[in-house]
């Protein structure tokens, strides 16, 4: 069985034009169109554009000029106010949520128990783990794209930061979270993937995908 799906919001143009149109979206019009739908809806919300890495493969690398974290979280909160998360799946896409902890309140309000992070800040500020627990987070998704050289090449990360990442993963596991590792395949990491499972087992992660 198939169905014709139409977006609630159709925004065309360049990336910058689409961002500006989204920023000027009339939420009352969005609410009217959303509430007229008689089907469940998946809503993706890009929250803010802060990150402490510049990964080569990141789809959110383009700068969103004039968009602050606070205003972005506020707008996302307004959208969530009239979304029924029990009937509609809400996906949150901050670049690095731990750089702006107020964004974690949105996870709590949607009942989302899974957060994606590069985990570097955990090594510097272990108290963030308590915040994750308080917000109901159970599963932590972390990208690890191979052993040191392969991962650092893709993420523009230093060896020092790679060591911090491994330390952070161990700390997150030890604090009772389920840690899932995601790996992006590319030409420079294929040769190191055979050795990656041994590292993941040693780190104590729950899932690799």
Uncertain spans, ≥5 residues at pLDDT below 50? 1-11
Specify Rg, calculated over alpha carbons.
19 Å
Form type: globular
Spatial strand arrangement across the major sheet: 3-4-5-6
Largest beta-sheet details: 4 strands, parallel
CATH superfamily: Aldolase class I
Report the order of strands and helices.
HHEHEHEHHEHHEHE
- What is the number of strand segments? 6
* CATH class wording: Alpha Beta
Describe this structure in words.
The protein has 209 residues and is of the alpha/beta class. The protein has a single domain (15-208), classed as Aldolase class I (TIM Barrel, Alpha-Beta Barrel), CATH 3.20.20.70. Helices cover 39% and strands 12% of the residues. The protein has nine helices and six strands. It has helices spanning 15-23, 27-35, 69-81, 104-110, 120-124, 128-134, 148-155, 159-174, 196-203; strands spanning 42-46, 89-93, 114-116, 139-143, 178-182, 207-208. Strands 3-4-5-6 form a four-stranded parallel sheet, covered by helices on one side. It has a two-stranded parallel ribbon with strand order 1-2. Strand 1, helix 3 (69-81) and strand 2 (89-93) form a beta-alpha-beta unit. The chain starts with 14 loop residues before the first helix and ends with a strand.
